[in-house]
Design goal:
The chain is an all-alpha fold. The protein is built from two helices and no strands. Helix 1 runs antiparallel to helix 2.
Length: 58
């Protein structure tokens, strides 16, 4: 999941660089996307690995 989000962010930056004239691709954006994907993955992992699992109601 984290790799998918990271490569998606890199793809968006590559498209910005190649398809637009008024936007720029920046390594800082790639780093921010990667960091956000990593933190989001950790948050999801932490949430779903608690002692008491979620009890889903349908």
């Amino acid at each position: 999941m984290v790799f998918t989000a990271t490569f998606y962010g890199m793809g968006i930056e590559a498209l910005q660089y190649s398809l637009t004239e008024n936007r720029m691709a920046e390594w800082g954006d790639v780093l921010a996307n990667t960091l956000g994907a990593f933190i989001g993955g950790l948050a999801i992992w932490w949430y779903f690995t608690k002692k008491e699992p979620l009890k889903w109601r349908f």
